[in-house]
Specification:
Helix content: 10-25%
Structural class: alpha+beta
Largest sheet: 8 strands, antiparallel
Radius of gyration: 22 Å
Shape: elongated
Oligomer: single chain
Distance between the termini: 23 Å
Number of helices: 4
Number of strands: 13
Strand order of the largest sheet: 4-6-8-9-13-12-11-10
Length: about 260
């Protein structure tokens, strides 16, 4: 397999990951669904109130967050045709996209976050962006449920239709680098190992255990999506090498994983 050395400063499009949940739009007001107490049509006043609440949510979205910070917002939405209303959740994490590889290296050093670098990449692939973000507890994990229950209790105790709280997590910063060649691409990432495995498994997913440079890794294959994943020796971070659109072969993924394992 042929590899090319990474240039010191390669420009690219930023890789941005969307981890936020948006609030329900007023378009839902025209859809009738069955609630605990029946159906109804939202009033103009309720629609107007929702519009104002949406503005407040957008103001939270636009705020600047530091690594590790997450803003949680809960809104009482009375426009989803439920007489009892519905609690809308929005979650906004720190997420910064960086276009330049050299800039990414400087930023990661300044923030003292997990180091993620590739000395070599498969021939023809170009760096297309880095993303530094707060890696939050996955949905339905034990930690997510605990946080959600606490926030919901605080929201109800406040007795208002809008509640927001910023939580600062320590050592929860994730990093991802992406590369492309035409329509094909691959990425490498490192996140804190506090996540729980998903219970949702595709029937077509193929999984195998491999050993690379003395490290046990999990190889996953689903259609044209291939992935290698492993935890470091202290189980503090989870590393992933993934490829889509037939970007890389299994052997090429293993060569990249070997680089990252050697650098741990």
């Amino acid at each position: 397999m042929k590899f090319q050395k990474i240039a010191i400063a390669m420009t690219s499009l930023a890789l941005l990951f969307g981890f936020t949940y948006g609030t329900a739009g007023t378009a839902q007001a025209e859809t009738y669904v069955k609630g605990k107490t029946g159906l109804y049509k939202p009033s103009k006043k309720q629609l107007a109130e929702k519009k104002e609440l949406d503005k407040r949510v957008e103001a939270i979205r636009a705020q600047v967050r530091a690594p590790g910070e997450i803003d949680y917002v809960i809104v009482k939405n009375m426009t989803i045709n439920l007489p009892e209303g519905f609690d809308d959740w929005s979650i906004f994490e720190y997420n910064e996209g960086i276009k330049n590889y050299d800039e990414y290296l400087k930023k990661s050093k300044a923030l003292q976050i997990p180091r993620l670098e590739l000395a070599e990449v498969p021939e023809g692939y170009q760096f297309t962006g880095a993303s530094i973000y707060t890696s939050r507890p996955p949905l339905s994990s034990a930690e997510d449920k605990k946080i959600s229950s606490q926030l919901l209790a605080e929201y109800k105790a406040a007795g208002k239709n809008f509640y927001t709280k910023r939580i600062s997590f320590k050592n929860r910063t994730g990093v991802s680098l992406s590369y492309k060649k035409g329509k094909s691409g691959f990425f490498v990432s490192i996140v804190p190992t506090f996540t729980e495995p998903s219970n949702m498994k595709a029937k077509t997913m193929k999984k195998d255990k491999l050993t690379i440079a003395g490290q046990e890794v999990t190889y996953t294959e689903e259609g044209d999506y291939l992935r290698l994943q492993w935890d470091d020796k202290d189980a503090k971070f989870t590393h992933t090498v993934g490829s889509n659109n037939n970007g890389l072969t299994k052997e090429e993924l293993k060569a990249i994983a070997k680089q990252l394992i050697a650098a741990q």
